Amino acid sequence: MDATLRYLSHPQVAIDPAVPVPDWGLNGTGRARTEALAAAGWLAGTRAIVSSAERKARETAAILAGPLGLAVTVDPAMHENDRSATGFLPGPEFEAVADAFFARPAESVRGWERAADAQARIVAGIARALAAAPAGDLLLVGHGGVGTLAWCHFAGRPIARSEDQPAGGGNYWAIRRSTRAPLHPWRAMEAPPPAV
Questions:
Q1: How far apart, in whole angstroms, are the C-alpha atoms of residue 159 and residue 97?
Q2: In whole angstroms, what is the distance from residue 102 CA to residue 93 CA?
Q3: CB of 63 within 8 A of CB of 38?
Q4: Least C-beta-crowded within 10 Å: which of 81, 101, 111, 139?
């Protein structure tokens, strides 16, 4: 059977407006969801895990790597879209800016990294991970925004918020490792892969 590349977004985090967003860690719900996935067994074919350097992604990857006996490779270039120009935004304001981010990918919305640039960066990071990983399934642990941009690339779809993950994080999509053909869009981490 052809190996699979899965891209997993970190689940729920402890939101603290006084802490830079890249330094947020998982909250209790996010940790429990990740531990349940680690115990579920269907990631057993994973031979390499690559994570964003952001704390929430590294924590997610470490929980999953333990039972698999794997070390986590960290790629700092696979971070979430750069939103440092605004810093923390409360929920409704964040959602409005995120809508504009996806709707106008060639523009910098309120100083955020352009979606087109973030997409090129995350796709390049995935190519690096694919080139370096041993044979077998590959798991990338990152973020919903750039994960959606990568999904749009591999699925041959235009950048659009409608392709975004469900709220809360902790979702994954998959492609065939050899051909990069899409296998399925975002699914909750509690849902095993569909039969192919």
A1: 15
A2: 15
A3: yes
A4: 111
